[in-house]
Automatic annotation (TrEMBL):
InterPro entries: MFS, MFS_dom, MFS_trans_sf. CDD domains: MFS_MJ1317_like. Keywords: Membrane, Transmembrane, Transmembrane helix. This is MFS transporter. Residues 23-407 form the Major facilitator superfamily (MFS) profile domain. It comes from Actinoplanes cyaneus. One of its GO terms (molecular function) is transmembrane transporter activity. It is a multi-pass membrane protein.
C-alpha cells in the first residue's frame, strides 16, 4: 500500500483529490514565485541586450538560444540522477537554487557579453535540472485521467508569476530611473524566497528502495526503443524547430508599433494573462477530448501569430490578438505535452523520460533561435518571420502524424 501511495496515486477518490491538491499546489506556489523572478529578467533582457548593449539580432539569437537550449543535455543528467537516487525534490532544489544565484551573476557580469552569456547558461542549467523532476512529481501524484487538469493548475499558478514578473520589473525600472541592475537584484531576492518555499513545503514522496535498482543508463536508453516514445520525441523536436523565442516576438511588435522602452515589459504581461486564464480550461479540455489535438491546436495558434507578425500589423487591436493567440499557444502546449508524455513512461524512469522530451525540444529551440537571428540579420524581421511561418506550415502536419502514432489518446 505504501508503494502505491508514493509512486502511483491511491485508488480512493478522496485520496486522489488530496494528492493532487497537495503536490500540485505546493509546486505551483514555488513556480509562481520563481516565475516572478524569471520573468522580471526575461521581460527586459531583449531590450537590455539589443537597445542597451547594442547587440545585433544574430548575436541576440545566439544568446536567446543559449537561454533555453545550451544546457539541454543537463536535463537528461538531472532527470536520470533524480530517478536513480529517487530524490526528485533534491535535484529540483539544486536547480532552483542555481537559477536564483545567477540573477546576481547577471548583475556581476556588467556589460560583458561573454559573462552575461555564462550567467544565462548557468541560469538555464538550473531550469534544466529542475523542470523534469518537478513535472515527474506532478505525474506520479496524479491519476492519468486528470493529468491535463493537474498540469493546467500548475501552469496557471506558474503563469500568475509570469504575469506579475514584468509588472514588478516595470515598477522597479520606474523607481530606479530605468536601472537594469536593480531588476537583477530584486529578481535574485524573489528567487531565493521560492527556494525557501520548496525546502519547507514540498515533500519528495519516495518508495522503499527495491532490492535491485531498475534505473540504469541501459534502461534509460531503452526508452527510445519504444515506438510511442520515439514518435512523440521526434514530433516534439520538429515542432520545436519551428518555434521562435518570446523575445523575438516582442521585438517585432515593438519594431512595428514603436513601443516605448518603459512599456516593453507589458507585452509579456499580455501573453501571460491569456495563458493564465486558459491554462486550466484547456488542460481539462485535453483530458476530455485528447491531449494530441490540443497540442496541435496550440501550434496552429503559433502559426497564426507568425502570419499576423508578417502581415505588416494593423494597430493596437492586432497586437492584442497576437498576444492572446500567443497565450493560447502556451496554454495548449506547455503542460499538455508533458501530460501526453507522462502515461507513456514507466514510473521508475518518469523523470528521465520527461527530460528526454524536454531536451529534444530545448535543442531544437537552440537551433531555431540561432537560425531566426541569422535570418533577421540577412532578410530583416519580416523576411525571417515569413520563413518560419513556412517552416511551421510544413512541420505541423508531419508532427500531427507522429503524435497520433505515439498515442491514440
Amino acid at each position: 500500500m505504501y508503494l502505491a501511495s508514493v509512486e502511483r496515486p491511491a485508488a480512493g477518490r478522496a485520496d486522489r483529490t488530496t494528492r493532487l491538491a497537495g503536490t500540485v499546489l505546493a509546486l505551483g506556489t514555488v513556480s509562481l514565485i520563481t516565475d516572478v523572478s524569471s520573468e522580471m529578467v526575461s521581460a527586459i533582457l531583449p531590450l537590455y541586450l539589443i537597445a542597451g548593449l547594442g547587440l545585433s539580432p544574430a548575436v541576440y539569437g545566439l544568446v536567446d538560444g543559449l537561454y533555453t537550449g545550451a544546457t539541454a543535455l543537463l536535463r537528461l543528467v538531472g532527470g536520470y540522477v533524480a530517478d536513480r537516487a529517487r530524490r526528485r525534490k533534491t535535484v529540483a532544489g539544486i536547480g532552483y537554487g542555481l537559477s536564483a544565484l545567477m540573477k546576481f551573476g547577471l548583475l556581476a557580469a556588467g556589460t560583458s557579453v561573454p559573462w552575461i552569456s555564462a550567467a544565462i547558461v548557468a541560469d538555464r542549467a538550473g531550469k534544466g535540472l529542475r523542470t523534469a523532476p518537478r513535472d515527474a512529481l506532478i505525474t506520479l501524484a496524479t491519476p492519468d485521467s486528470q493529468l491535463g487538469r493537474a498540469f493546467g493548475v500548475h501552469r496557471a499558478m506558474d503563469t500568475a508569476g509570469a504575469f506579475a514578473g514584468p509588472l514588478v520589473a516595470l515598477g522597479v525600472l520606474a523607481a530606479s530611473g530605468q536601472a537594469y541592475d536593480s531588476v537583477f537584484v530584486v529578481s535574485g531576492c524573489v528567487a531565493l524566497i521560492g527556494v525557501l518555499v520548496l525546502v519547507l513545503f514540498v515533500r519528495d514522496h519516495r518508495a522503499p528502495r527495491p532490492a535491485t535498482n531498475t534505473v540504469s543508463p541501459g534502461a534509460a536508453f531503452a526508452l527510445l526503443r519504444r515506438r510511442p516514445i520515439r514518435m512523440l520525441l521526434i514530433g516534439a523536436v520538429l515542432l520545436g524547430l519551428s518555434t521562435i523565442g518570446d523575445g523575438f516576438v516582442y521585438l517585432i511588435i515593438g519594431k512595428h508599433e514603436a513601443i516605448a522602452t518603459g512599456w516593453f515589459p507589458l507585452l509579456a504581461v499580455g501573453t501571460s494573462l491569456a495563458y493564465l486564464l486558459l491554462a486550466v480550461p484547456l488542460g481539462k479540455l485535453a483530458d476530455r477530448i485528447g491531449r494530441t489535438p490540443v497540442v496541435l491546436g496550440g501550434y496552429a495558434a503559433l502559426l497564426a501569430v507568425y502570419l499576423l507578425l508578417g502581415s505588416g500589423f494593423g494597430g493596437s487591436l492586432t497586437v492584442v490578438v497576437i498576444l492572446v493567440l500567443y497565450g493560447v499557444y502556451y496554454a495548449c502546449t506547455d503542460g499538455v505535452l508533458m501530460a501526453l508524455a507522462g502515461p507513456l513512461l514507466p514510473a521508475e524512469l518518469r523523470t528521465t523520460g520527461l527530460a528526454l522530451v524536454q531536451t529534444g525540444q530545448a535543442l531544437a529551440y537552440l537551433v531555431s533561435s540561432v537560425l531566426f537571428g541569422l535570418a533577421w540579420q540577412w532578410w530583416d524581421a519580416d523576411g525571417a518571420i515569413h520563413a518560419f511561418a513556412l517552416l511551421a506550415v510544413v512541420m505541423l502536419p508531419v508532427s500531427a502524424v507522429l503524435l497520433r502514432a505515439a498515442r491514440v489518446h
